[in-house]
Amino acid sequence: MNKNIVIIAGEPYSVFLELLFKSIKLKKIKKPFILICSKNLLVSQMKKLNYNFKINLINKYEVKNIKLLKNYINVLDVKFYFKKTFDKISPRSSKYISNCFSAGLKLIKTGKANVLVNGPISKKYFLKKKFLGITEYVAKKSNKKGQEVMLIYNKKLSVSPITTHLPLEDVKRNISTKKIIQNVMTINSFFINKLKKKPKFAITGLNPHCETNKKFSEEEEIILPAIHKLKKKKINVNGPFSADTLFLRSNLKKFDIVVGMYHDQVLTPIKTLYEFRAINITLGLPFIRITPDHGPNNLMLGKNKSNPSSLIEVFKFLKQIREN
Q: Between helices 16-25 and 39-48, what is the axis angle to 10°?
């Protein structure tokens, strides 16, 4: 973990820069990083929020010899023309966000960085229904489409949905034995290789109480076969469990990871349990990609009241895997 960390600020009208300023001031970010964003917007928000950090501007034409300065915000400037420091999220940010990701992924591909952290993105405008989420967007841009796995990580408990940002009516058509096995094995390898831990998995059912009055039972036809095959591969996995009681604290002590069938089935409880003390990691990529587990929160923009806990957890995690 001795290569550079790239941070893409993401949506220009989100609270991310505020959270970054707070994290730096609290001395929770100690390793120099490359911030990809509009320098003018960065300076303008810094001034409005009463922060004063020194900036080292990185010339995009000299990235082969990047020199990061400690105690500076090292910025790779991406042009963004704005009228207001704080404004509403709109489609006009899309080209800017795309350029930021292009610059960040180029640094990854050329070996100048091996960690990509991105601030939140408004799916409504940037993705334009072409991708389910940034998880899928980054996988496609990294030529790993179909191999991506979303892991919401907390040191005490992590969760992973088999389907991500799908409407509920589409979930059952997009779960399969193969997909469950692939996701669990990817997570298992990550825990063993990066965290030096053999994890214990709990798999949820799809239907309430893992039961259905239909002829086809997803639990019996899809989920149980996946569990049986994973056990044969010596993966520590059990289930399927009914999600309505699985997240009781007495049950969670038995597991490290809960794999659910759809997004809110597992993200709602983990956010209830740990609030902002969780991070979103995309597995299955040739690099580590992390984002704080919160959205742009445009309504709080400029108020200087947002909680930086999730971003702080990102850097705690990076320190943890460096030490391992």
A: 70
Tell me: pLDDT of 160 over 90: yes
Please name which of 220, 229, 315 lies closest in space to residue 277, comparing C-alpha atoms: 315
Which residues of the chain does CATH 3.40.718.10 include?
1-148+284-324, 150-280
204: tokens are 């949820």
Q: According to CATH, what is the number of the domain 1-148+284-324?
A: 3.40.718.10
Does residue 72 come out as left (phi exceeding 0), alpha (psi in the -120 to 50 range) or beta?
beta
- Residue 212: pLDDT over 60: yes
- Helix locations, the chain, DSSP H: 16-25, 39-48, 94-109, 123-126, 134-141, 168-171, 177-194, 218, 224-232, 243-246, 249-252, 263-274, 309-323
Angle between helices 224-232 and 177-194 (to 10 degrees): 40
Could you give the count of Cα atoms lying within 13 Å of 127 in the half-sphere of its Cβ? 19
The answer to whether the bond into 308 is cis (omega within 30° of 0) is: no
Phi then psi dihedrals of residue 240, to 5 deg: -80, 145
The pLDDT score that the predictor gives to residue 1 is 44
Give the predicted TM-score (pTM) of the model.
Answer: 0.91
For residue 122, give the amino acid letter. Answer: S
Residues 272-293: tens digit of each pLDDT: 999 888 899 999 999 999 998 7
How many Cα neighbours within 13 Å face the side chain of 137? 19
> In this structure, which amino acid lies at residue 296?
P
CA distances from 203 to 8, 156, 255, 271 (A): 33, 17, 10, 18
Q: Is the pLDDT of residue 62 over 80?
A: no
* Percentage of the residues of the chain whose pLDDT score is greater than 70: 97
Reading the block at residue 78, the tokens are 């991406």
Architecture of domain 150-280: 3-Layer(aba) Sandwich (3.40)
* Measured distance CA(90)–CA(107) in Å, rounded: 27
Over residues 227-237, the pLDDT tens digits come to 999 999 999 99
Distance between CA atoms of 192 and 299, rounded to whole angstroms? 40
